[in-house]
């Protein structure tokens, strides 16, 4: 898929999404609903890989993180809007059909807007269409910066020509620097899910009711607030990611996530002990809110941003797809096991387990994830070469050069 140009990808993506919406509009046929889920899964999967890479390749290095994070904002903002839409259709005949069908409207709008997008200038350059690439780059950079970018792309192109063109999945694991890069990217994606974000987003009404709030309306309202916090936190992440760096932001986010999960665990332990249910119920709500407030600016956008910039050109598509697969498989595992684990060991211990995973994530980020803020793709690739082969390499000087470019 990543070998396609930017104009062909949206056609296929929107085809999947529109087919999915049409299929979901046909009631009473479970197999049709399953087929619809298949199409929406394919569409979202394509978008989750191609969108961050396209944005990263068309962005100046100093604002690349913020622009890629904007893609995450569109996701979290969409989740919030979906809650509002669902609430609006709760009293309408054919409720669930409208809820599913109305999602086709933004898909059509997105399709039309995507037709106006140019191809990735980096992709064009690597395909030897330099004239068109330079025209697009000239709309992004001033004259002085344009020359530097063309030089960087020329260096990258020359390096790519010296490598074999056909990259297979097995090739990722044959190269030491690629193993390190993929470990960092896929590990971030896995820890994003295993620290429980989609457990909170999928089951927030259930968690609220577990905390002692029996009203469905109140549970939905509190869940709407959680979704709004998620979107608002992502806005902060857009600013922080290019000012404090990916690694610092991820570590700060995980520290807050650990504290929030401990609060949630304590609230459920307290409630199960027979103490004031109402008090511990509100403490659980506080824990949920703090969890989202800490997670959304950091571990929400950072994995997608890092994965869009840590792989060499020829590996970017395949590694991006593999790491996105890790994300979605991890999402599936957590979503399918949360309620079962909570029933088996108790909700409090379930949050303790998630907190323990978050501690492991702190160690992982500290050891395996480099800082890439402000670096060009060539400079990021050099980091992996130096890490793989043990040469002394001054990351700080790279950061300075990247920020000065």
TrEMBL record:
Lineage: superkingdom: Eukaryota
GO cellular component, one term: membrane
Boundaries of every Major facilitator superfamily (MFS) profile domain copy: 1-373
Keyword Cell division belongs to the record: no
Keyword terms, alphabetized: Membrane, Transmembrane, Transmembrane helix, Transport
Topological type in the membrane: Multi-pass membrane protein
Cellular compartment(s): Membrane
Xref: InterPro entries: MFS_dom, MFS_sugar_transport-like, MFS_trans_sf, Myo-inositol_Transporter, Sugar/inositol_transpt, Sugar_transporter_CS
Predominant place of localization: membrane
TM ranges: 31-55, 95-117, 180-203, 218-242, 249-270, 282-306, 318-342, 348-369
Molecular function GO terms recorded: transmembrane transporter activity
A single BP term in Gene Ontology: myo-inositol transport
NCBIfam families to which the protein is assigned, alphabetical: SP
PANTHER family per record: PROTON MYO-INOSITOL COTRANSPORTER
Entry's family note: Belongs to the major facilitator superfamily. Sugar transporter (TC 2.A.1.1) family.
This protein's name: INOSITOL TRANSPORTER 1
